[in-house]
Amino acid sequence: MNRGLLVGRAVCQHRARSEVVGRALAQHRACIELPVKHFARATYSTTPTGRFVLPEKYANMIRSALQRFVPRYQGPAIGLSIYTSCTAHPDFDAFWLTQCRMPHTFQTWFSTTTLYVWLAMVRLRASPHAKHYMQGLIDAFFRDAEAKMRASGVTSGRIVNDTLKDLVSSFKGTVMSLDEGFATSDAVLAAAVWRNLVPEDEAVLQVDAVVRFVREQLSMLDACEMEDVLAGRFQFRSVMSVDDGKAGDKAGEKVGDEDTKLSG
Question: Is the dihedral of CA 82, 88, 92, 96 positive or negative?
């Protein structure tokens, strides 16, 4: 009987100690989780609420310290949004394959898509975080290229890696050529288009159309807000819909010739 009472008292004491320990652990967890909740808030307040509130000065310091890392983590998502808009052009079959008479191959897709990616890269250079956004765009482009290679039946990892290395070299060369043409003249830009995109001797009119398309679309992107560009809220026109300025030039030449005759 006495032994049973002793066991009962020991059990009660153990339960009481367990409740005390449980309350202590709960208070300890609350003390640990409390700063996390305040750090997760969008704004910080110094108004006393009975709990710990991070002072505004230190909150601003933390914001400024973390702000540097935000573009790096946003880069992949922003790059994918921009790349989605770059691949939404309607010209692959109608213009590049039909009018330019280019073969329907993976290399043709890669070369023509490089042009649209480059157009977006030119606009992104105006952003203070262009390095992260452009890297995200390029990564999305090459992930898509790798996926297309594997979908076509290439299963060897070595072949895929070697092909990607060649594509990187080709991409860099095309970008440098287009940059040079963009910064100098239409003649240099036309030469870059002919070497890297439309290597056909008889595609003179098509090369001229691409040059006018590049100039027009760069103006379109320049008129877009950077927020819209980062969100992929832009759309490239068709190369075939670009206005031809030759008719206006010929009309101007005719008017000039008539004025010269009248003055003579």
Answer: negative
Q: What is the pLDDT of residue 44?
A: 42
What predicted TM-score, i.e. pTM, was given to this entire model? Answer: 0.68
DSSP 125: T
Q: Which two tokens stand for residue 53?
A: 């509130």
Distance CA 17, CA 82 (A): 61
* CA nearest to 145, candidates 173, 176, 106, 184: 106
How wide is the angle at C-alpha 81 spanned by C-alphas 146 and 168, nearest 5°?
Answer: 35
Using an 8 Å Cβ cutoff, are 96 and 112 in contact?
A: yes
Q: What is the model's pLDDT at position 165?
A: 95
Q: In terms of Cα–Cα distance, which of 230, 192, 227, 193 is closest to 209?
A: 193
Helix (H, G, I), strand (E, B), or coil: what is residue 104? coil
Residue 39, φ and ψ in degrees, nearest 5: -70, -30
In the chain, the amino acid numbered 108 is T
* Residue 25 pLDDT > 70: no
Could you give the C-alpha distances from 167 to 113, 152, 159, in angstroms and in order? Answer: 12, 16, 12
Distance CA 261, CA 264 (A): 5
